């Protein structure tokens, strides 16, 4: 494989601040692998840990040294990229592996119906986008996560997703994965070699070892996306006897559909917002517009966090349309000249035949969210997001389904980091969705505090969790890669 040059990582005050959180002390080395000893905090600021060592590997050999050291000293290992998980999936007080230095992108390789590209886990989404669009012919993933500043280690191991009903999670785009297990062995997973183990590896929660590389299926960029933004009333979309069927027709017509909602008509004012932002993407062969004409336009909504949104229609390259949310200097959105981070709780649930459960869930959430946002001593500027994807074939995905054509709703509630009472509020919301809609928490979002969540997950995943754990134990018999978040998930299986 040929290594390609990757773009330089984002710089600026916020990027530097996050970097300092991860690496503040003078580096020490063991067998050439650098490590530091400072505390770690995720992007949202709601999870912190004090790793004994935070390693900064650059090669496969470095990963094997880390595993050897952990085995010799009876330490656990977890991995972190940009820290954009809101659960404590990466947290550990033993050995943390910062994958940013594992950032190789290998030259795309032609295959029967497109191309594949192999990457290491420290590659940013934006870096791969840039390499793929410079390829001849230009390439892209059919769907992807919204932020371009996250790294594929977290995107793939946690089962992250976009908004396309013609695609599932990004983990479902993997054709091969290599993982360093608890013995320091490099294990290769593929559908041809072992379909069950491959399914477990593609969305492995960091429990099979340290992921070294993933090979992704990408497509030739023969089409662009026609992006249509509108700001209709809640009533016109989610009320009435035909609301579910009308929503179904809209979602199935589009390649991607996304709803964004915030509770206040005017920023910082208590007036209820009776409108919802609707984004629709449709495939087209028309040429993309010049992006320069899409910036520096006056805001259309009175909310600085969403001031970039503009009603209208435009044609964009796939990656540009997917990564629509502007992220400051590469790490955090800039609002009112300050830096704002958020926390996020979310689930996946199967959409019923007439989309009635989606309408019910969203209408109920709008009301509950307004009560929370106005119920304290200060208003809380929350936001809701709803997207739809095709079912996943990966056994540990919350959107797993044996019907490949099933549609899943991905529903999130967000608040500024440190918002008072948000964890209590969001856990009640998630518990209710789990009870009413058989929803499953999205692994990188907040979910551990939901009452009785582990017994629920045992029931919801059932035999799939047992099968996954059997594969996991074969690669990690002494639970080297199991932290507190996942300890109760695999206990007793």
Question: Would you write up a description of this structure?
Answer:
The strands form six sheets. This protein has an eight-stranded antiparallel β-sheet. Strands 10, 11, 12, 13, 14 and 15 form a six-stranded antiparallel β-sheet that branches. The chain has a five-stranded mixed β-sheet with strand order 2-3-6-8-7, with helices on one face. Helix 7 crosses helix 9 and helix 9 runs antiparallel to helix 10 (422-437). It contains 13 helices and 25 strands. The protein has helices at residues 13-22, 60-72, 125-134, 152-157, 195-202, 234-238, 243-253, 318-322, 356-374, 422-437, 453-461, 463-475, 484-490, and strands at residues 3-4, 28-30, 33-36, 40-41, 48-49, 53-55, 77-80, 95-98, 105-106, 109-111, 114-120, 139-140, 174-180, 186-190, 210-220, 224-230, 256-261, 277-284, 312-316, 334-335, 338-339, 342-350, 383-390, 407-416, 440-441. The radius of gyration is 22 Å and the shape is globular. The longest helix has 19 residues, at 356-374.
Outline:
The protein is α+β, with helices and mostly antiparallel strands and 493 residues long. The chain is built from 13 helices and 25 strands.
What is the beta-strand fraction? 15-25%
Class computed from helices, strands and strand pairing: alpha+beta
Overall geometric form: globular
How far apart the termini lie comes to 40 Å
**Radius of gyration from CA coordinates:** 22 Å
Estimate the mean pLDDT confidence.
92
Oligomerization state:
single chain
Percent range of helical residues: 25-40%
Instruction: Give a short account of the largest sheet.
Output: 8 strands, antiparallel
The largest beta-sheet arranges its strands as: 19-16-18-17-23-24-22-25
Number of strands: 25
Number of helices: 13
Low-confidence stretches: 5-16, 328-339
